[in-house]
Specification:
By secondary structure, this protein is α/β, with parallel strands linked by helices. About 35% of the residues lie in helices and about 25% in strands. The protein has ten helices and 13 strands. It has helices spanning about 35-45, 70-80, 85-95, 110-115, 115-120, 140-150, 210-220, 230-240, 255-270, 275-280; strands at about 5-10, 30, 35, 50-55, 95-100, 125-130, 130-135, 155-160, 170-175, 180-190, 200-210, 240-245, 250-255. It has a nine-stranded mixed sheet. Helix 9 (about 255-270) packs across helix 10 (about 275-280). 1-O-phosphono-alpha-D-glucopyranose binds near residues 129, 132, 170, 189 and 203.
């Protein structure tokens, strides 16, 4: 069955991003010229996935507004003859089929994915964490879907991180860490750097079989007292049904202030319209 659906967990409080995320959900904070969540949706479109379920939480209803129609704005742009902007605004509501479900209690990432089960139904699906911004020039999810089709197993994307940072991530145990695609023996959430099975970190991109919902529904709380997606992945690994695909492209953790700033500078410098001027501008800070 083709991968047609995706889940974007976006229910968190964004505490690492305060004060910016106090009144505005962090996923709606702008990087260069669009909110973070638009990058996530555009990444899915590059992989041909257009049925997207955003998991939000009370107070974050505005997340889907970015993708719904705004008649007042559209007629104002039309009256002023601003056709380019009008097209851009309309593109946002036509680009994908956006749905939303509520996670009413902050019980963890695994629980956030689980609340989307009735939307996903019995189909394979992708999960993308919007904090992780991937290079818009790449198509990691598209490549993961190919791996999913080839191997007939769940797929996670991993990247090498400095060992002292592995405790911020899920980490995988594999036989050959140098391979591009690896069968995973086990996965552990936020391991101690001294005992971590590898320095290969989960980077928030997953292509999953729908039976992961049965596993998620039976999990006990794990690291941090939360229902962890990583623990469900570990069950899949034990069943010999988890593959990791290495990502070598650029990525930024836009959920941290430093990562957000780095994403802003890198993506502004690459921007086709104002990138060249921006590059000149930032030379003075080198
Ligand atoms: C989540 C996942 C973790 C993954 C990380 C990627 O952690 O639980 O396995 O490595 O995203 O950014 P969080 O950053 O929400 O603590």
């Amino acid at each position: 069955m083709p991968v047609r659906k995706a889940v974007i967990p976006a229910a968190g409080l964004g505490t690492r991003f305060l004060p910016a995320s106090k009144a505005v959900p962090k996923e709606l904070v702008t990087v260069v010229d669009r909110p973070i969540i638009q990058y996530t949706v555009e990444e899915l479109l590059r992989a041909g996935i257009t049925n997207i379920c955003i998991v939000s939480s009370p107070g974050k209803e505005s997340l889907t507004h970015h993708f719904s129609s705004n008649a007042k704005l559209e007629s104002a742009l039309e009256d002023k003859g601003k056709t380019d902007l009008l097209e851009e605004v309309k593109r946002l509501q036509d680009m994908a089929d956006i749905y939303s479900v509520m996670q009413n209690q902050p019980l963890g990432l695994g629980h956030a994915v689980w609340v989307a089960r009735e939307h996903v139904e019995d189909e394979p699906f992708a999960v993308l964490l919007p904090d992780e911004l991937m290079d818009p020039a790449g198509n990691l999810v598209g490549e993961m879907v190919e791996t999913f089709d080839d191997r007939g197993a769940c797929v996670v994307a991993v990247a090498q991180v400095p060992r002292e940072e592995i405790n911020l991530y899920g980490s995988i145990d594999v036989d050959d860490q140098s391979a591009e695609t690896m069968w995973v023996n086990s996965v552990i959430e936020k391991p101690d750097p001294d005992t971590a099975p590898s320095d290969l970190a989960l980077i928030g991109r997953y292509v999953l079989e729908p039976d992961i919902f049965d596993v998620l529904g039976k999990l006990d709380p794990g690291a941090g007292g939360e229902i962890q997606l990583t623990d469900a992945l570990n069950v899949m690994a034990e069943r010999g049904r988890l593959v990791a695909k290495r990502y070598r492209g650029r990525r930024w953790d836009a959920g941290t202030k430093q990562g957000f700033l780095e994403a802003t500078v890198a993506l502004a410098a690459d921007h086709p319209e104002f990138g060249p001027d921006f590059r000149n501008y930032i030379r003075q800070f080198a």
